[in-house]
């Protein structure tokens, strides 16, 4: 190259005298005509082939039409190419000896050809649908940078002619601007520069500043971030890998599995699932993550270059004769490197958070899909509480792990490089610092291991707490009826205390770890400087050595402090995903055939788990296509289990099961979605009007539509909360009927409805003349009147079929079945002989609080709307059937009140301690840094410095003091956060449990679970962590500002405006950030609600084959949440890039002012000022991150406190109110002009109720739907408060005593049996006030003693969540045992025997009559036959009593009651 330059008549390629050792630096002509011209061109020609291959292979996005911008770029590119050719022509004309100027001639030629290539690439990108090009952007940028030196020379020589280089500058600048402004909104089409600096996000911030952001303002997810895109490949790879793992483990397992080998296999599966999950995630997101890793590597390279430039700058300060331009060059380099460091860091963070977001989608998707496949035994292990915790806390920890994953392998490299550069600077003493690292790593390794175990303990407590809260929310009505809130409060608090105890211990260890990490730079500096000065007196620590070493050592803080703690969460996720699944081969599904057996079971042995004895044995049955099979048997005999075995829900241990055709299933306990009545019935199908109407009519739902405010568009609430048990069952039956399936499995669908409704449904739907005639029907029933119409009757007994045959065949055998029929034929004959009613005027005699409230509220609402005309008719129609309230987002910045509320719970003592410790810690930091500058400025005497031991002692004392202060600060903030979290959780729990029932009916459980899980987790961990970082870095920033101002006071002229801009940008941004946090939190609640709903209805969803539709719904909810999460984390990056640029200006100002004032400033103070100003970028980044985290997470406090101001029910106990211990002693009830309203201004639910019920009186309450029967019972329990009049019990006004005093002295047996996870004893006596003898006696009277005594742990037998390991009948009997234990004088019955067989029903009725003989009994009657021997019957209609007398007298009057009995076939 040197020869070529000399042959062309140019100077050498490089000359240090021209470039460095001069006051006017320049580059040689040869360098300008070769390297500066060739470098951009070589870059483009080298990368173009690969880029063209990439364009060819990427998916086709469509051709972009020619635009003015594209034409302009093409025209200018070709013009620039022609300018190069003209330059060549001009040169050839002017110069004869061309061979002597080849280099000068080659430049324009290469540039012209490269411009043509650039135009070709522009057109190729347009054809392939690429809007932004990194390749071309970098080419134009290199071209601009390389053209600046020739441009400078041209300007200096004042050449009139505009050279081609200037054209290059203009074109490249214009093209770069075009690239920048082409499309700034969505990230996908944003130019490279816009992506790099996050300019594309500005439009959303501006919109958020002008007005509060709404969900409609958010961008839809990019395709690659959507659930469908992520889960398609991931799910396929996951399924294949899991099958291979199971096959591998099965091949290794022993022939005879024992409990130990099964446990070992389960652990191996869990670990295997963890590895498979990591592989799957790496395969899906690895390439994108690698791009972020490259940004991190570039960032680290620049990070190590900064101390070298600092060293050069301090060397310049020491050399008073050095040229000024060199100092300015070093200052500029520090600024440029700091800017590049910021941008690359935030590109890395953007990629990490994007991968974290996709990982969150993947984990949620896998957990949801797993919840649809889990076996019954696995469901008992993987509770809803664990699932909610997995998709909230564990997922968050895995997302955090993505950010810190690279530190695992980069940390050792960074440490090695740091010590290498220290060794170059200080020699062998630098290696002494390794001892400090060796001490810190094992210590923190031990701490990390202990903390991971503590985290596991904490997560188990959290799982249990969320599980318990879910049960409390699901069974809150029972808690209020029985006044059990105070029994469950301690249970929640014990779990919360365990959770916080583990967190507290973990935080103490974390404080030790963090203090050691932050002291690591001091310890390394102490050992390195100590060894350096002590081993040789001639070793002098000057400013260059000290502050370059400090800059290098500060780099170590990052790799030493980033140890990931996501292993526990990964293990928990692996264990959950490795749970047993339902085996597809449990049941063989065959195509439908009109002939032969539709259902076939041969020698079937079935169990609910893989271990233990079979629950069903020797099952042999053949069900002919189109036949009706009835299944009967006592409670717990295995009837429901038989249907579950046919559905494949049970483990098939032996035998064969096959079903031909599609299946519909009606569970014994109806599963209702939080959707409209219509959506529940259609269940994803198309609406066929005539068939739909026929189904509604046959299922006796048409009269219900007339009283619902929006007919079938009425929202019927979570779990069908505002429907009666009978209505829920009929909706469930209508859903199955509407499907027109081939096989129907009906699990006692008629138990919750009245006799006449049951007969109607049997005749019109199930029976031989019903809509399902010709379909295969397997009906579990306790109604003996239906058996004669069945083609086949199966009698279940202790898990096997004891008898099987037609009704007449079984009667002829005169076995147990015939005996049962003869015993109970009397009542059944009367009920079955009634006339068939073709159109029912009465649908159901039961309606609860929420439905009556809904009916009356909407009725009055419509009247008021019509009268006042204030609401648009379309709006009314749209909201008429709306019941539940969606989670709402507040708008604007978080109110200062929320901060005050949080700090109030922390306490003034903690706050004062924290502020003092922070200030003290920073003061010691300032002192020891200043001490270093004094040490550096001490001039050596005879080549040595004095008092090394004193300097080291002072330095060590200050450093250790700072470390202790850091430990104290961290610990105080952590403990203060735990105190605040405990108070806030207690307040939330108190607020929720003191809320009335109406609150739970309009508030989805997902909203509450969201607050008890994710929001509480944020208060536990995120807020204290954010506050700790924010306070620490704010004080650190204050220290930096003080040092910089002391060194260069004129920096204040830059600092003040920078501070103003900083605050302006921050306030501009926070409004959008807070609103995005709220939108993200609000969009999370539907995910929890959907997961909750799916887990409870998984069996029904599987039976109908609707898994795919529910998975798509879950994906949609997750995507909606991610649409808010994506801009939320991008907003932080946008802010950080802008603010760190301001911080880098401070670096530039400090460096330039130091250079300018080098004659007045000592190297020590300059080194101190510059090294601290270099930290400003990182400090600002962390302040932004922590401030944003605090502001965003304080939203959690806002959301937790949201329910504090909602309406609360009356006090549980009243001070000064002393009831007699035996109250009520007689059980007399008096209603005096009693009236009830659901809300003020609405119609009366009850009006002018006046009656007196004497002690021991048995009163039945009947009436049509909406008559007010349940309202009367709810008034007695003060679930609803009186609007007028009063109720007296034993002469005491019930409004003058506490709710618990009232509810604990009276008893109700509800229609829906609710059990909680825990022992049988706990479910009967949660306060543990009864002896074991009393409990056994109650169980005996409830006919459960034999069942419970046969259990391995008897009274300590653990009931699953919702009592799923007991049959519905057994649950109802346990509810009866509860009432027997309470021994109160007033008992309210709400058809408590609907799900038991007739023999058990008769025994229960007998028990009630004998054991409650001395009690006042009020029965809300569904079966009129149960109240015919009562003292009195109250007939209600539209909230008033229309008839009241003895049953015989009312029949004699032939009024309303007579008509009801007539319809029921009782007369």
From TrEMBL:
<feature type="transmembrane region" description="Helical">
    <location>
        <begin position="401"/>
        <end position="423"/>
    </location>
</feature>
<feature type="transmembrane region" description="Helical">
    <location>
        <begin position="952"/>
        <end position="980"/>
    </location>
</feature>
<dbReference type="Pfam" id="PF00005">
    <property type="entry name" value="ABC_tran"/>
</dbReference>
<dbReference type="InterPro" id="IPR003439">
    <property type="entry name" value="ABC_transporter-like_ATP-bd"/>
</dbReference>
<keyword id="KW-0926">Vacuole</keyword>
<dbReference type="InterPro" id="IPR027417">
    <property type="entry name" value="P-loop_NTPase"/>
</dbReference>
<protein>
    <recommendedName>
        <fullName>ABC-type glutathione-S-conjugate transporter</fullName>
        <ecNumber>7.6.2.3</ecNumber>
    </recommendedName>
</protein>
<dbReference type="Pfam" id="PF00664">
    <property type="entry name" value="ABC_membrane"/>
</dbReference>
<dbReference type="InterPro" id="IPR011527">
    <property type="entry name" value="ABC1_TM_dom"/>
</dbReference>
<feature type="transmembrane region" description="Helical">
    <location>
        <begin position="508"/>
        <end position="534"/>
    </location>
</feature>
<feature type="transmembrane region" description="Helical">
    <location>
        <begin position="325"/>
        <end position="344"/>
    </location>
</feature>
<feature type="transmembrane region" description="Helical">
    <location>
        <begin position="192"/>
        <end position="209"/>
    </location>
</feature>
<feature type="domain" description="ABC transmembrane type-1">
    <location>
        <begin position="290"/>
        <end position="572"/>
    </location>
</feature>
<feature type="transmembrane region" description="Helical">
    <location>
        <begin position="285"/>
        <end position="305"/>
    </location>
</feature>
<dbReference type="GO" id="GO:0000323">
    <property type="term" value="C:lytic vacuole"/>
</dbReference>
<dbReference type="InterPro" id="IPR017871">
    <property type="entry name" value="ABC_transporter-like_CS"/>
</dbReference>
<feature type="domain" description="ABC transmembrane type-1">
    <location>
        <begin position="914"/>
        <end position="1192"/>
    </location>
</feature>
<feature type="transmembrane region" description="Helical">
    <location>
        <begin position="1037"/>
        <end position="1063"/>
    </location>
</feature>
<feature type="transmembrane region" description="Helical">
    <location>
        <begin position="546"/>
        <end position="568"/>
    </location>
</feature>
<keyword id="KW-1278">Translocase</keyword>
<dbReference type="GO" id="GO:0005524">
    <property type="term" value="F:ATP binding"/>
</dbReference>
<keyword id="KW-1133">Transmembrane helix</keyword>
<keyword id="KW-0472">Membrane</keyword>
<dbReference type="InterPro" id="IPR005292">
    <property type="entry name" value="MRP"/>
</dbReference>
<keyword id="KW-0067">ATP-binding</keyword>
<keyword id="KW-0812">Transmembrane</keyword>
<feature type="domain" description="ABC transporter">
    <location>
        <begin position="1229"/>
        <end position="1463"/>
    </location>
</feature>
<feature type="transmembrane region" description="Helical">
    <location>
        <begin position="35"/>
        <end position="54"/>
    </location>
</feature>
<feature type="transmembrane region" description="Helical">
    <location>
        <begin position="75"/>
        <end position="93"/>
    </location>
</feature>
<feature type="transmembrane region" description="Helical">
    <location>
        <begin position="99"/>
        <end position="122"/>
    </location>
</feature>
<feature type="transmembrane region" description="Helical">
    <location>
        <begin position="905"/>
        <end position="932"/>
    </location>
</feature>
<dbReference type="GO" id="GO:0005774">
    <property type="term" value="C:vacuolar membrane"/>
</dbReference>
<keyword id="KW-0813">Transport</keyword>
<dbReference type="GO" id="GO:0016887">
    <property type="term" value="F:ATP hydrolysis activity"/>
</dbReference>
<dbReference type="InterPro" id="IPR050173">
    <property type="entry name" value="ABC_transporter_C-like"/>
</dbReference>
<feature type="domain" description="ABC transporter">
    <location>
        <begin position="599"/>
        <end position="823"/>
    </location>
</feature>
<feature type="transmembrane region" description="Helical">
    <location>
        <begin position="429"/>
        <end position="450"/>
    </location>
</feature>
<keyword id="KW-0547">Nucleotide-binding</keyword>
<comment type="similarity">
    <text>Belongs to the ABC transporter superfamily. ABCC family. Conjugate transporter (TC 3.A.1.208) subfamily.</text>
</comment>
<keyword id="KW-1003">Cell membrane</keyword>
<dbReference type="InterPro" id="IPR036640">
    <property type="entry name" value="ABC1_TM_sf"/>
</dbReference>
<dbReference type="GO" id="GO:0005886">
    <property type="term" value="C:plasma membrane"/>
</dbReference>
């Amino acid at each position: 190259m040197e020869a070529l330059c000399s042959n062309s008549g140019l100077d050498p390629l490089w000359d240090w005298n021209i470039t460095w050792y001069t006051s006017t630096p320049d580059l040689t002509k040869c360098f300008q005509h070769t390297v500066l011209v060739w470098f951009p061109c070589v870059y483009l020609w080298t990368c173009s082939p690969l880029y063209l291959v990439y364009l060819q292979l990427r998916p086709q996005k469509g051709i972009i039409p020619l635009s003015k911008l594209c034409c302009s770029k093409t025209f200018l590119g070709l013009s620039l190419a022609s300018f190069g050719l003209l330059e060549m022509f001009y040169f050839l004309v002017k110069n004869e000896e061309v061979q002597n100027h080849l280099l000068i001639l080659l430049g324009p030629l290469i540039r012209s050809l490269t411009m043509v290539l650039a135009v070709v690439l522009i057109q190729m990108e347009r054809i392939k649908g690429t809007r932004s090009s990194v390749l071309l952007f970098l080419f134009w940028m290199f071209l601009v940078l390389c053209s600046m030196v020739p441009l400078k020379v041209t300007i200096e020589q004042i050449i009139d002619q505009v050279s081609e280089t200037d054209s290059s500058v203009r074109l490249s600048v214009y093209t770069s601007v075009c690239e920048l402004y082409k499309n700034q909104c969505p990230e996908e089409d944003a130019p490279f520069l816009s992506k790099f600096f996050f300019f594309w996000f500005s439009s959303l911030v501006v919109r958020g500043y002008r007005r509060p952001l709404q969900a409609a303002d958010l961008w839809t997810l990019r395709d690659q971030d959507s659930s469908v895109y992520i889960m398609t490949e991931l799910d396929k790879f996951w399924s294949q890998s899991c099958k291979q793992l199971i096959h591998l483990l099965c091949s290794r397992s022993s022939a005879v599995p024992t409990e130990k080998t099964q446990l070992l296999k389960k652990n191996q599966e869990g670990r295997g699932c963890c590895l498979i999950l990591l592989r799957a995630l790496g395969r899906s997101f690895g390439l994108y993550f690698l791009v972020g890793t490259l940004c991190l590597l570039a960032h680290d390279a620049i990070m190590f270059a900064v101390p070298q430039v600092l060293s050069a700058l301090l060397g310049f300060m020491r050399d008073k004769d050095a040229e000024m331009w060199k100092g300015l060059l070093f200052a500029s380099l520090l600024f440029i490197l700091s800017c590049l460091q910021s941008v690359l860091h935030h590109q890395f963070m953007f990629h990490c958070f994007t991968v974290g977001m996709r990982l969150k989608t993947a984990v949620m998707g896998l957990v949801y899909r797993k919840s649809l496949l889990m076996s019954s035994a696995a469901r008992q292990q993987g509770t809803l509480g664990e699932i909610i915790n997995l998709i909230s806390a564990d997922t968050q920890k895995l997302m955090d792990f993505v950010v810190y994953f690279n530190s695992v392998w980069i940390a050792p490299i960074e440490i090695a490089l740091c010590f290498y550069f220290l060794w170059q600077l200080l020699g062998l003493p630098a290696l002494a610092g390794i001892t400090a690292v060796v001490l810190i790593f094992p210590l923190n390794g031990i701490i990390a291991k202990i903390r991971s175990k503590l985290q596991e303990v904490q997560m188990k407590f959290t799982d249990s707490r969320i599980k318990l809260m879910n049960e409390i929310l699901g069974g809150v009505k029972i808690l209020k009826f029985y006044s059990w809130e105070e029994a469950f409060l301690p249970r929640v608090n014990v779990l919360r205390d365990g959770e916080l105890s583990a967190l507290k211990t973990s935080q103490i260890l974390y404080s030790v770890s963090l203090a050691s990490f932050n002291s690591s730079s001091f310890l390394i500096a102490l050992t390195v400087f100590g060894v350096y000065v002590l081993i040789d007196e001639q070793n002098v620590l000057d400013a260059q050595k000290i502050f370059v070493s400090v800059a290098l050592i500060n780099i170590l803080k990052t790799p030493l402090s980033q140890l990931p703690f996501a292993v526990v969460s990964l293990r928990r996720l692996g264990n959950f995903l490795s749970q047993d699944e339902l085996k597809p081969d449990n049941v063989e599904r065959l195509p439908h055939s009109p002939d032969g057996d539709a259902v076939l079971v041969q020698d079937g042995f079935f169990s609910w788990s893989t271990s233990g004895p079979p629950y069903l044995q020797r099952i042999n049955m053949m069900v002919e296509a189109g036949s009706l099979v009835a299944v009967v048997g006592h409670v717990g005999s295995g009837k429901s289990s038989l249907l579950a075995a046919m559905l494949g829900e049970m483990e098939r241990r032996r035998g064969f099961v096959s079903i031909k055709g599609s299946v519909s299933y009606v569970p014994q306990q109806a599963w209702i979605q939080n959707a409209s009545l219509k959506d529940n019935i259609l269940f994803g199908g198309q609406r066929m009007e005539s068939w739909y109407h026929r189904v509604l009519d046959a299922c006796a739902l048409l009269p219900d539509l007339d009283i619902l405010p929006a007919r079938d568009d009425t929202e019927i609430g979570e779990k069908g909360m505002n429907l009666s048990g009978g209505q829920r069952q009929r909706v469930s039956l209508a859903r199955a009927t509407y499907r027109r399936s081939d096989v129907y499995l009906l699990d006692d669908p008629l138990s919750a409805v009245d006799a006449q409704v049951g007969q109607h449904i049997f005749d019109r739907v199930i029976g031989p003349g019903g809509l399902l005639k010709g379909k295969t029907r397997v009906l579990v029933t306790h109604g003996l009147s239906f058996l004669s119409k069945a083609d086949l009757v199966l009698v279940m007994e202790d898990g096997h079929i004891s008898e099987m045959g037609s009704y007449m065949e079984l009667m002829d055998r005169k076995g147990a079945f015939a005996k049962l029929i003869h015993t109970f034929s009397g009542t059944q004959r009367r009920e079955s002989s009634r006339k068939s009613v073709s159109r029912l005027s009465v649908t159901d005699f039961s309606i609860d609080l929420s439905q009556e409230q809904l009916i009356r509220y909407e009725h009055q609402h419509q009247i008021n709307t019509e009268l006042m005309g204030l609401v648009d008719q379309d709006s009314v129609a749209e909201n008429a059937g709306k019941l539940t309230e969606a989670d709402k987002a507040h708008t604007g910045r978080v109110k200062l009140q929320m901060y005050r509320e949080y700090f109030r719970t922390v306490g003034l003592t903690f706050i004062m301690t924290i502020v003092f410790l922070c200030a003290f810690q920073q003061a010691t930091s300032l002192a020891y840094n200043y001490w270093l500058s004094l040490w550096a400025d001490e001039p050596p005497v005879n080549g040595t410095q004095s008092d090394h031991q004193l300097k080291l002692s002072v330095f060590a004392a200050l450093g250790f003091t700072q470390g202790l202060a850091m430990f104290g600060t961290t610990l105080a903030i952590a403990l203060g956060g735990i105190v605040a979290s405990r108070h806030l959780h207690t307040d939330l729990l108190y607020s929720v449990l003191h809320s009335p029932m109406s609150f739970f009916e309009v508030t989805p459980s997902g909203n509450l679970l969201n607050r008890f899980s994710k929001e509480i987790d944020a208060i536990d961990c995120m807020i204290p962590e954010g506050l700790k970082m924010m306070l620490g870095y704010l004080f650190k920033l204050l220290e930096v500002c003080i040092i910089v101002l002391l060194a260069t006071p004129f920096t204040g002229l830059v600092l003040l405006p920078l501070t103003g801009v900083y605050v302006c940008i921050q306030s501009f941004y926070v409004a959008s950030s807070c609103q995005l946090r709220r939108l993200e939190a609000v969009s999370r609640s539907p995910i929890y609600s959907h997961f909750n709903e799916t887990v409870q209805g998984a069996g029904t969803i599987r039976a109908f084959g609707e898994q795919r539709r529910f998975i798509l719904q879950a994906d949609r909810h997750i995507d909606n949440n991610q649409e808010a999460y994506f801009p939320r984390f991008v907003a932080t990056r946008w802010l950080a890039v802008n603010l760190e640029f301001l911080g880098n200006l401070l670096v530039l100002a400090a460096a330039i002012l130091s250079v300018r004032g080098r004659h007045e400033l000592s190297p020590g103070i300059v080194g101190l000022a510059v090294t601290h100003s270099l930290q400003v970028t990182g400090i600002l980044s962390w302040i932004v991150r922590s401030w944003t985290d605090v502001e965003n997470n304080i939203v959690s406090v806002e959301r937790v406190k949201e329910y504090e101001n909602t309406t609360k029910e009356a006090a549980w106990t009243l001070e000064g109110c002393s009831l007699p211990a035996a109250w009520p002693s007689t059980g007399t009830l008096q209603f005096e002009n009693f009236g009830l309203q659901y809300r003020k201004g609405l119609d009366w639910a009850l009006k002018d109720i006046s009656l007196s019920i004497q002690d021991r009186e048995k009163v039945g309450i009947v009436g049509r739907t909406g008559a007010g029967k349940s309202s009367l019972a709810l008034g007695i329990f003060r679930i609803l408060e009186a609007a007028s009049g009063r109720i007296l019990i034993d002469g005491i006004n019930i409004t003058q005593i506490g709710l618990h005093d009232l509810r604990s002295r009276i008893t109700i047996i509800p229609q829906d049996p609710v059990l909680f996870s825990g022992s049988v004893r706990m479910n009967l006596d949660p306060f543990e006030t009864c002896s074991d003898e009393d409990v056994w006696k109650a169980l005996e009277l409830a006919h459960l003693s034999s069942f419970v005594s046969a259990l391995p742990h008897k009274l300590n037998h653990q009931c699953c969540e919702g009592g799923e390991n007991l049959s519905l009948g057994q649950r109802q009997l346990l509810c009866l045992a509860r009432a027997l234990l309470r021994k109160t004088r007033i008992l309210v019955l709400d058809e408590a025997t609907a799900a038991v067989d007739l023999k058990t029903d008769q025994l229960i009725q007998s028990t009630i009559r004998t054991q409650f003989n001395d009690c006042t009994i009020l029965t809300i009657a569904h079966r009129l036959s149960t109240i015919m021997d009562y003292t009195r019957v109250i007939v209600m209609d539209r909230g008033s009593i229309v008839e009241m007398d003895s049953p015989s007298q009312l029949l004699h009057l032939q009024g309303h009651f007579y008509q009801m009995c007539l319809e029921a076939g009782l007369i």
